[in-house]
Amino acid sequence: MAIFWKHVKSSSPLLQRLKRHITGGHYLLSRSFTTTEGHRPTIVHKRSLDILHDPWFNKGTAFSMTERDRLDLRGLLPPNVVSSEVQIERFMVDLKRLEVQARDGPSDPNALAKWRILNRLHDRNETMYYKVLIANIEEYAPIVYTPTVGLVCQNYSGLFRRPRGMYFSAEDRGEMMSMVYNWPADQVDMIVVTDGSRILGLGDLGVQGIGIAIGKLDLYVAAAGINPQRVLPVMIDVGTNNTKLLEDPLYLGLQQHRLDGDEYLAVIDEFMEAVFTRWPNVIVQFEDFQSKWAFKLLQRYRTTYRMFNDDVQGTAGVAIAGLLGAVRAQGRPMIDFPKQKIVVAGAGSAGIGVLNAARKTMARMLGNNEFAFQSAKSQFWVVDAKGLITEGREDIDPDALPFARNLKEMDRQGLREGASLVEVVKQVKPDVLLGLSAVGGLFSNEVLEALKGSTSTRPAIFAMSNPTKNAECTPEEAFSILGDNIIFASGSPFSNVDLGNGHIGHCNQGNNMYLFPGIGLGTLLSGSRIVSDGMLQAAAERLAAYMSEEEVLKGVIFPSISRIRDITLEVAAAVIKEAVEEDLAEGYHEMDARELHRLSPDEIKDYVKNNMWNPEYPTLVYRHE
Ligand SMILES: NC(=O)C1=CN([C@@H]2O[C@H](COP(=O)(O)OP(=O)(O)OC[C@H]3O[C@@H](n4cnc5c(N)ncnc54)[C@H](O)[C@@H]3O)[C@@H](O)[C@H]2O)C=CC1
Ligand SMILES: CC(=O)C(=O)O
Ligand SMILES: [Mg+2]
After folding, report:
1. For residue 491, which atom of ligand 2 is closest to its CA?
2. Is the ipTM, as predicted for this complex, more than 0.90?
3. Is 59 an annotated catalytic residue?
């Protein structure tokens, strides 16, 4: 409790109100709060080796002698009791040594080796794992998340040691309502679910896609402070259409073609019903579903369940923040956004999500009426695998239809149905070139040369596809062809570029990781039953406003990942505030809706901060179940 009060001034109205919530000496608001010395202990129902083998409670050599006695651990550990700092020091020495020696494959041997070592720590001691991850997030986010998580998913059969999360398969139809009780935790706050059909830009990886759900939840813990005992990665295995996996004798998933149509929907429906029956307050993040289903499932569930689609909605928010940053970086006010000409390569779940959100943002700035909404669409040119999308396209995808360009108008611009990306860039001379195509190198030298004709004073390039090899271009390519007067962002991390003239080309990471943890945390703590458009918009706006004028003018439009916990707190607070304003907030635990309505913006931030889990060992006390 002391940690919490430390952050709240004694005269604060929040303090006064929260004090009313203290009953019987128990601090109820943050039951999830870490128990360190002097804090409420954690009750465990196991002892001895069972404790050492449970990553939720294991502290390894950091168990104190009194705890070793209480938990029947005396003699099961080396006698030296070490602090968590020394424990981490020892681990890091080993990690650094092994990562030099390891040889796991040709693409990036060290990355996969680091992942293995971190994964083993994750399996034996979660507190220590998250302590290492949070303290070194810049170094290890690229290992537990993109790009290495892509490699992990691709090699999952060989890497699989211990299961993590739950698997619901087409074979489990009719059983999900009961099997959901096989999960040991009575409270689950966040589920990230995938069906493995489009993992990053790597296509259908079937059951191996569970790696992305695990990686996203690692960020929920590290960035949003969701208690790791309350996260659940889920893989829904409805088969795979990946021929290699269908024929691979070592593949761990169902070796049948993917279910489709009503059969597919029935499986997802059953899963949703089961998890919301056991955990009515859980939030479900849909991740890496192929576009064909991403939009349909979002429409199907978003008004009845607490869920969102990260690729459609999270990516859209991050892109909006980046696009507004690019306007500011030109030295113009954000309100000039509707004048930007934007070419988007890729019309899948991510591309269409960005287009819809960008169009709505422009329309709001132009007067928020139907006329503004209609005129905003003329700022976008969308190119997919078949080239420029126009009304002349046969069998046009209904989600892309609103962005199909008029043929006559295109004729006047010297363009046509199916025009190539380079032709479009040459004719349109866009302010922004944004890629969500999953095609590495799509922004070829020719395309980048064409972008030299941009009418913008500072063109922006967003090569947002993941993992690294799928980036539409590298920052080196962009800066070397276009010079340093550009804005560059990529989905996976790249290093800044030394331009050799005393200037550094800044490479931003434009990834939905800057939003999804805050959207999830804000939704959880607001108690909103849905994730509304307004809440998503508030999240994007907070991210857009996060960067200072000075940073933006230097081309830094997204924060460094080392600030991810802070930006997540800010985003979560913005989401809560919006949920309160929309009258959606029902409260969380003892913070009821009425109390939430009374909190000032600073108090909302205190509330978020004090409900974020920190990786500190709790004092463990054994009780017979
Ligand atoms: N940076 C970030 O935060 C995020 C990045 N992504 C990345 O976006 C990419 C796409 O994801 P989805 O939209 O879900 O995939 P998708 O497979 O549904 O869509 C890909 C789109 O690219 C188009 N495309 C293919 N070849 C093309 C070409 N030569 N020229 C132009 N367009 C082409 C396809 O026609 C399709 O419209 C993935 O690599 C994913 O990792 C997705 C979400 C977030
Ligand atoms: C970042 C992400 O969600 C993706 O590439 O799919
Ligand atoms: Mg994704």
Report:
1. 1
2. yes
3. no
